[in-house]
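User: I'll paste a sequence; please echo it back and then give the predicted structure.

Assistant: Echoing your sequence first, then the prediction.
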Amino acid sequence: MLPSLLTPGVIEDFPDPRLADEEGLVAVGGDLSRERLLRAYDQGVFPWFNEGTPELWWSPDPRAVLRPDDLHVSQSMQRVLRKNPFELSLNQAFTNVMVACSQDREDGTWILPEMVEAYSDLNDHGDAHSVEVWENGRLIGGIYGVQRGALFAGESMFHRRPNASKVALIVLVRSLAAVGVELLDVQMMTPHLASMGVVSIPRADYLAQIAELTSKSVCFESLVDPD
């Protein structure tokens, strides 16, 4: 199937992601309005595009996901968590986390200013969240993503000190599990994520789960202790 062309300002459902092209591209164009973004995540679709291109909307196959019970924390990371060397916060520097995630990437970034503006608006409405890691008042790590009921779509993370992003991810997963989030979507697999318990599942399986997950009422307002 050729990707559908979306019209800016006209909010419609996305095409069936199961009909995406071989790379997972579902649609082109549209805008980054709050309503369109939320519809995208509810349908298993997310935006990812570079500067100078139109909005591109993806649903890759397979999909990389983590169930909180499957989170693997190495012994060395358990020791780090017990020492609790960092300060942690929730939604205190969402935009700063996004900007930090966009920096120092050798292959460029998809976290463009318009993405930062759009996702910061989601955060203002309680639809997106960030976990921040601090050291002596300086932001040294973090992670952000979009929450839809019992589904959390992790978007990106960064670190400026060893282990800072791992701490952010572990605390995020444990905190989400505590309030009833059942699945963390990280979109695409990396060796680092695989070492922490992330697995790849067929897109069809992912899409079959998200309708029920996104319909659940889950309130994410605080973090659990890191250890």
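Helices lie at 34-42, 75-83, 94-102, 113-124, 164-179, 191-195, 203-214. The first strand starts at residue 4 and ends at 6.
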